[in-house]
Amino acid sequence: PILYSYFRSSCSWRVRIALALKGISYDLVPVNLIKDGGQQFSAEFKALNPMQQVPALKIDGITLSQSLAIINYLEETHPNPRLLPQDPKKRAQVRMIADHIASGIQPLQNLSVLKQMGEKKMEWAQNCITSGFQALEQILQHTAGRYCVGDEVSMADLCLVPQVANAERFKVDMGPYPTITRINKALLELEAFKISHPSRQPDTPAELRA
């Protein structure tokens, strides 16, 4: 497998966690979203992913984009360890939380959106994350055990950790979100979350390395 990734991309990080958890080794091709006006806009990368976004994963003779689609494919082809619970209700809750983050929070504070916000980008990102986290904190109070849904790591957790890192980068006050904070802390102690961390990637700038 070949993963096209950017160290700081939260969507790429989700996929790196899934690959690590499932023990799938891969080659990483960095795509710098800032340099050269954004390497994702090159003709070569556009041929690979017409949406001009990371991640993209070449695996089993196909190329997949969209992090949740990639994670679902890995789940179906490498079922252990499970990232979707067997219980239909818990499985629905996992998907709900993953979608809440992947559709309802992350795209609104994505690089392409922030570029258009100009000087207001920090305030915009904070508002998007805060409104999303207020809802998420409430949801997690009903679903969480050690992690987002019960005591098993799931696709929801793969979305949560990178989003909390974004929140911290945009200086969002995490005080009102004790459940999110607790789960995030527990997840960051796991090896798969450590090795996939933005501070430990081949394309991480020296000053941001762990």
TrEMBL record:
Q: Which residues form the GST N-terminal domain?
A: 1-82
Q: Which CDD domains match?
A: GST_C_Zeta, GST_N_Zeta
Of which family is this protein a member? Belongs to the GST superfamily. Zeta family.
Keywords assigned by UniProt, alphabetized: Cytoplasm, Isomerase, Phenylalanine catabolism, Transferase, Tyrosine catabolism
Q: What is its EC number?
A: 2.5.1.18, 5.2.1.2
Task: State the Pfam families in the record.
Answer: GST_C_3, GST_N_2
Q: What is this protein called?
A: Maleylacetoacetate isomerase
Q: Which PROSITE patterns match?
A: GST_CTER, GST_NTER
Molecular function in Gene Ontology: glutathione transferase activity; maleylacetoacetate isomerase activity
GO CC annotations on file: mitochondrion
Q: Which PANTHER family match?
A: MALEYLACETOACETATE ISOMERASE
Lineage: superkingdom: Eukaryota
Report the InterPro entries cross-referenced here. Glutathione-S-Trfase_C-like (IPR010987), Glutathione-S-Trfase_C_sf (IPR036282), Glutathione_S-Trfase (IPR040079), Glutathione_S-Trfase_N (IPR004045), GST_C (IPR004046), GST_Zeta (IPR005955), GST_Zeta_C (IPR034330), GST_Zeta_N (IPR034333)
Q: Which GO terms describe its biological process?
A: glutathione metabolic process; L-phenylalanine catabolic process; L-tyrosine catabolic process
Task: Give me the gene this protein comes from.
Answer: Gstz1
Residue ranges of every copy of the GST C-terminal domain listed in the record: 87-206
The reaction(s) catalysed by this protein are: 4-maleylacetoacetate = 4-fumarylacetoacetate; RX + glutathione = an S-substituted glutathione + a halide anion + H(+)
Required cofactors, per record?
Answer: glutathione
Indicate where this protein resides in the cell: Cytoplasm
The pathway it acts in is: Amino-acid degradation; L-phenylalanine degradation; acetoacetate and fumarate from L-phenylalanine: step 5/6
Question: What lineage, starting at the top, does this entry show?
Answer: Eukaryota, Metazoa, Chordata, Craniata, Vertebrata
- Where is it mostly found? cytoplasm
